[in-house]
Prior knowledge:
Layout: E1 6-11, H1 21-35, E2 38-40, H2 42-49, H3 52-64, H4 66-87, E3 90-95, H5 97-101, H6 104-115, E4 119-123, H7 132-137, E5 140-142, H8 145-156
Parallel strand pairs: 1-2, 1-3, 3-4, 4-5
Helix pairs in contact: 1-8, 3-4, 4-6
Amino acid sequence: MSSTMLAFLCGGMEYVQDGGRGWREHLRLWINQELGHRVFDPIIEAQRILSEEELANFLKWKCADFERFRKTMRFIINHDLEVMAREADYVVCHWDVGTARGGGTHAELTAALRKGIPVYFVTEMAPNDISGWVLGCADKIFTTFSSLKEFLTENYGKQRGQTTLFSVPSSSG
């Protein structure tokens, strides 16, 4: 196991603008450069663990070929949750209306809670508009990424290490 901390980025993809790429890329680069932590970004990881055919088609398979979709989606789910359980030191979750429509973020937050992994939650939504279950998984809530960065710098800034992206060997699935 690497001595470098791993930040696990969690948030909506399926029902959010840009598939959740923008905030992840910005935060991934910042965490990597400023804190020296490895970062698990599920968008990058999907590109690494899925075949070109799966990347191009698995969302289409949701309606056109459910069994292929289910097989691919279960591979992704199992992979991501295994990485979180075995490697994550903390989770950063971006929560918005689109995220609430999905299911993966809810499950990842619950898995982090069960494993005792701190969850740092970033949202502009009012607490009354967020599920109590979801809020119960959060260790600290931020309304801006700037305030999250201040917190991470203060609490993790001294723990510097290698600056490579996280990677695990893939298994065929």
